[in-house]
Specification:
- By secondary structure, the protein is mostly helical.
- It has a single domain, classed as Arfaptin homology (AH) domain/BAR domain (Substrate Binding Domain Of Dnak, Chain:A, Domain 2), CATH 1.20.1270.
- About 70% of the residues lie in helices and about 5% in strands.
- The chain contains six helices and five strands.
- A hairpin with a 2-residue loop joins β3 and β4.
- α3 packs parallel to α5.
Length: about 325
């Protein structure tokens, strides 16, 4: 007896899936949504890149330094400009789609009127042409819906950019005002120090009897060396008190700036940048999804016209 192979027979190769037919219209399943086939509808999740701690520390050192607020304000302005530019593109694209929809419906209507005239071929040709024109009418409808979606995206992104810009102006005023107060206090402190140093040098020369100081006159005539020394002592004492007061004021302003005001401004600006960039990215994703839905009908082909030559009536 011949040996019998006990292993089960391999299953027959699966037949290719039949092409879908939608109201007599052939729809290629592999081409019905090219953006979906390429993954444009649902982009693969990409994990965020790992951040080097050393680089993050350098970035934080810059952002929380004296140039941090101005740097973030410039970066936020770039994000707002990009969002508004994208909104302008959406509006222009919407107008193009609207005109295209109107023209497509117009030409479809005229062609349908011509097909229905008795002097043109009837029968299978007229039937298939009506189906083709129906598809183009759907394409025009999708294009119009795409136009409305684009205009809504333009409106939403513009409103979001305006709100972000309003908050940017607020934090610009708050942040730069605090920076300027601290900077002005440091400049005033430096002037007080220079004044105190100059008076202290004059007082030292007057105490040591240095004749280079020259003679000094008051309302009642020339001042004696003792009177000049007393006047300089009072001026030095007042300059020292003013300097010490400015030291305390500057130190308090600097402490408030570094511990409270600057961190609040920096964190608020970083959050606004993230919100603006996230809104722009979300609208770009909507653009891809709306485009995929709109152009689905662009790859539909009539079954009869692609399969055989229509017979004349």
């Amino acid at each position: 007896m011949d040996d019998v192979d006990a292993s089960p027979a391999a299953p027959p190769a699966a037949a290719p899936a039949p092409a879908a037919v939608n109201n007599g219209v052939h729809v290629d399943s592999e081409l019905s949504s090219p953006l979906q086939a390429s993954g444009a509808l649902e982009p693969p999740a990409v994990p965020p890149p790992a951040i080097n701690p050393a680089v993050a520390k350098v970035v934080d050192d810059v952002l929380y330094s004296d140039i941090g607020v101005s740097t973030l304000l410039a970066r936020l302005k770039q994000s707002i400009a990009s969002a508004r530019d994208l909104a302008i593109f959406f509006k222009a694209r919407s107008e193009i789609e609207q005109r295209q929809s109107e023209k497509l419906r117009e030409v479809s209507k005229k062609t349908l009127e011509s097909v229905q005239r008795p002097e043109f071929r009837q029968g299978s040709y007229a039937q298939q042409m009506k189906e083709v024109l129906r598809i183009h009418d759907r394409m025009a409808e999708n294009s119009l819906q795409f136009s409305l979606n684009l205009f809504q995206m333009h409106t939403d992104l513009n409103q979001h950019a305006d709100e972000i810009d309003r908050q940017r102006k607020h934090w610009k005023q708050v942040g730069l005002s605090a920076e300027k107060q601290a900077s002005d206090a440091e400049a005033a402190l430096e002037k007080a120090k220079v004044k105190y140093t100059a008076l202290a040098e004059k007082y030292d020369r007057a105490r040591t009897g240095d004749s280079s100081a020259g003679r000094h006159f008051g309302l009642r005539g020339p001042k004696s060396a003792e009177q000049r020394e007393e006047d300089l002592h009072r001026q030095v004492k007042a300059a020292d008190d003013d300097y010490q007061a400015k030291v305390q004021h500057t130190r308090q302003l600097r402490q408030d700036l570094l511990s409270t005001q600057r961190p609040e401004t920096v964190n608020a600006l970083r959050q606004l940048i993230q919100e603006c960039d996230a809104a722009t990215a979300m609208q770009l994703q909507k653009l891809g999804k709306c485009s995929a839905i709109c152009f689905t009908y662009a790859v539909l082909t009539p079954t009869s016209l692609s399969a055989r030559v229509p017979s004349s009536a």
